[in-house]
Design goal:
By secondary structure, the protein is an all-alpha fold. The protein has two domains: about 60 residues; about 80 residues, no CATH class. About 70% of the residues lie in helices and about 0% in strands. The protein is built from six helices and no strands. The radius of gyration is 19 Å and the shape is flat.
């Protein structure tokens, strides 16, 4: 129980530091309608709420994941870091489709369903972010679009 309380406190402190660092994001007069700070604020707020919940109500008898689960989590982190680096040169659609398909395959190892989930998430998120939220996303790499 003490480990859960310490973990919850650390997550809460890191989330608050993340929110504080998001206040330093520079905005220009040509910023997106949502603004560049809103997403980090939301992520930090959700993380802080989760950390507070874990600190207040820890699990009495936690089951630790197996080594295989830790390996899958490390693989997912590597995929997401690669996704972050691939967004700028490759645009939004291709890296999002590949990343979503890989992560979907990790959840349920059915290749066809994972590929369809990746494509659907990529196109669906692009439509939401580009047209509903008005974000300035680039769909494909410049080499493909000319």
């Amino acid at each position: 129980m003490a480990a859960d309380r310490i973990f919850g406190a650390v997550v809460t402190l890191v989330a608050l530091a993340y929110i504080a660092s998001a206040t330093q994001i520079q905005t220009s007069f040509l910023a997106d309608p949502v603004g560049p700070r809103m997403f980090p604020y939301l992520v930090g707020a959700v993380a802080a709420i989760c950390g507070i919940f874990v600190a207040i109500k820890p699990d009495e008898n936690p089951d630790w994941p197996t080594l295989r689960t830790f390996g899958a989590l490390c693989f997912a982190v590597v995929v997401l870091v690669g996704y972050a680096y691939a967004l700028k040169p490759l645009g939004f659609l291709i890296p999002t489709a590949i990343t979503a398909a890989i992560l979907s395959w990790q959840i349920s190892p059915r290749p066809v369903h994972a590929a369809l989930a990746g494509l659907g998430l990529s196109v669906g998120l692009f439509v939401i972010f580009k047209f509903a939220l008005g974000l300035g996303l680039v769909a494909l790499p410049a080499a493909l679009t000319g």
